[in-house]
Amino acid sequence: MRGGAGSDGGSSEPGRMWQPPVSVPYRFEETRDVSMRSSGTTFAAVVATAVVTISLGGLSSWSQEIIYLAPPGEPAEAFPRPQRPVADIVSPSRSTEQQRDAFDESGQIARFLDFRSGMTIGDLGAGSGYHTVRLSRFLGPSGQVIAQDVIKDYLVQLATRTKRLKLSNVKFALGEPHDPRLPRASLDAAILVHMYHEVAQPYAFLYNLAPALRPGARVGFVDLDRPTSQHGTPLALLGCELAAVGYRQLSVHQLGGELGYLAIFSPPKESDRKSPRDIVPCSPPG
């Protein structure tokens, strides 16, 4: 489960799934004199067609702009597969944004990871963009959020949302299950929020992520301490899989509001990265 759907930031609004932008009023004919209602059916059909055409045109434009930002890294077949279940991607959102805002989820993560204005942060598995929208404002015009996901439709919808909110410091990155496809040394930090258990090729993904992280970068994982089959990741298993690729655990924090844990890691230096064939997969606890 991913980002979040509902409000667009500062003030709360009722949770809702994204809807395409509408440039033509749905009920335009109601503003006309009653004498026009005899042709209302035909007119409504024309309006509906215009709405669909405009909306699909906008989505098509965004779809063409959302691409891989970097060449492919190491192939998936070079790495061991995880010896535990991989959860299905069931939704671009985890819960309503009002609920998450009530516990200051983005704020907690930003404080523990010491995010500052001007940084470039990767929101991996961005989904509908709960953290992307909030971090965009937090980082300011000199900073940037790179919203990455393997599902292009999620990114197209998020691009529409950020355009409507006039957020100009968000870039979109299409990824693969085994490779985030991010430019080398492009990130000061990255977050993976309630999505690591959905990564089909975790060892390959972590290995191919490392080059995108600048010296001193940190990676934060938010998840629930329960089996991956139940849309969580046991903390011990997370630590084992990260260590298998050369990441070092720095700290673990319990987030308020039953949001789960935040585990912070530093990536391996390029000279210290293991060869894919030397990575030994972890067994699930118990």
Summarize the structure in words:
This protein has 286 residues and is of the alpha/beta class. It has helices at residues 40-65, 97-102, 105-112, 130-139, 152-164, 202-209, 235-245, and strands spanning 120-124, 144-149, 170-174, 187-193, 213-223, 248-255, 260-266. It has one domain (64-278): Vaccinia Virus protein VP39 (Rossmann fold, 3-Layer(aba) Sandwich). 29% of the residues lie in helices and 17% in strands. Strands 3-2-1-4-5-7-6 form a seven-stranded mixed beta sheet, with helices on both faces. Strand 2 (144-149), helix 5 (152-164) and strand 3 form a beta-alpha-beta unit. The chain is globular, with a radius of gyration of 21 Å. It starts with 39 loop residues before the first helix and ends in a 20-residue tail after the last strand. 41% of the residues are buried.
